[in-house]
Amino acid sequence: MGMSSCQKITIDVFIQLKDEQERADALIDGSKPIKISLPTDGSGPNARKKEEGFLLIAGLISPPYPDRPCLPVKSRRRRREQSTVATPPEIAARARSRRAISMPGSSGVTAFDDLPEWLVVDEILVRLPPKDVLRCRAVRKSWRSGTSTDAFILGHHRRQPSLPIIQHKLGICRVVGGSNDLKIRPVIRYDGSFTKFQLQAACDGLLIVSQQANFFICNPATLKCASLPRPPLRPRFSFIDVVGFYRHPTSGEHRILWVSYTKPIRIYETFQLPDYFILAVGSSQPRCIQWPTVSKQKYFPATRSTDCPPVHHRGSLHWLMGLNIVVFDTVAETFRQMSRPTQLGDMVSLLDMGEALALCHVAPDCATLDVWVLQDYDAGTWGFHYRIDLLGMEASPPINWMFQSIPRMALINERELLIQRHIHHLLHCDIDGVFLGNVESEERLSCWTLTRHCLQESMISLPLFETQEEEAVNQEPPFSIVL
After folding, report:
1. pLDDT under 50 in the chain at which residues?
2. Which whole-number Å values give the CA distances from 2 to 111, 115, 120, 421, in the listed order?
3. What is the CATH topology of the domain spanning 160-481?
């Protein structure tokens, strides 16, 4: 079957995917009757050709964003009118009989089982949200095996949107929804403890959260969580923090770059240079990383990921440090520096624009944001890209810019961005400075912050998850996953 005919598959194929999933759920829990769409003869509303093709598939199980249904309301109403309640014996009987479906451009009918397995896995399941793919694994063994390969998991992860993360005192949230209706929804809720929590890092859908000296790594999409080993602390008044979190390009393992440092208690005490360690997730044997030092140097080559997460680009981690950019090569495991436009001053943040690095410069009046792009990475050539004038933005309702703080900006895609200038206010606009709306929270949040972390969901699992579950040594995390 060529790709041209694959694009002509009718909506019935995808509805049957829904039914297969519901049958599996009902057989697992036989006490719950479910609704199943009655067979059709190839005519009627379900047989209409959908020009959008595979882009509508995800909506037949659950839309990627609840506020953006992939099917019109009328289509969903017709499907409900064609539904009846089936008992578990009837479900099992229907599961044994294969329903015929029609294919546009063909003279007869074909069965769902006639679809190539690669088509279902590589063109349909790969486009669903992680939660729906995990449910579909219970439908057929072939789907479970096909969606469990490293190639599928990484390919599926690359298709997921990268969503800005918001942190507040009670947990971690993310921004979701359509271009005209963004919402803030929770991902993790902290317990009632007064101990401070911190989001340390995010990579490949995995989050690292700390509470004092305890570190945890979790995958919100799979609800997996484990306590995280860390390098030992120095003597006296010392600290340890995550500096970077990345997937090693060669081995594929996830690694953490840690920093261990001591804060002088008295002003006359000698400043001690920090130590940097690399620790593979799950390992307890850290490796110390050497970095070039200058006599009497009193700054770190890389800062904490909590405050300023590095930008992953071209296999390296990038931090904005002073008037330079510090680069850590994840393969050679070495630090170096690269230049940036010094005329932008120090009110600058580093952004990831996908294909290039970018700098966001905030004017002294905190009302203008200029974005510069690294046009040539090897030559270090930067160029002005666009400007956002907050005072000239026509917002509805009008924005009161009095008593605002330094704006924080996060990119949604190449055309849209988020800007926060108040602890209770997040606006949505495009790169032309056109106001698109205010982002509201579904919960009453206080003192929240738009971080520079992003969550791109995945079904990636770690050996550490399974190891701690088998050995029953998993420390109970002081938070709950509500994604």
Report:
1. 1-11, 27-28, 30-85, 88, 91-92, 94-104, 106-110, 294-298
2. 17, 12, 14, 52
3. Neuraminidase (2.120.10)
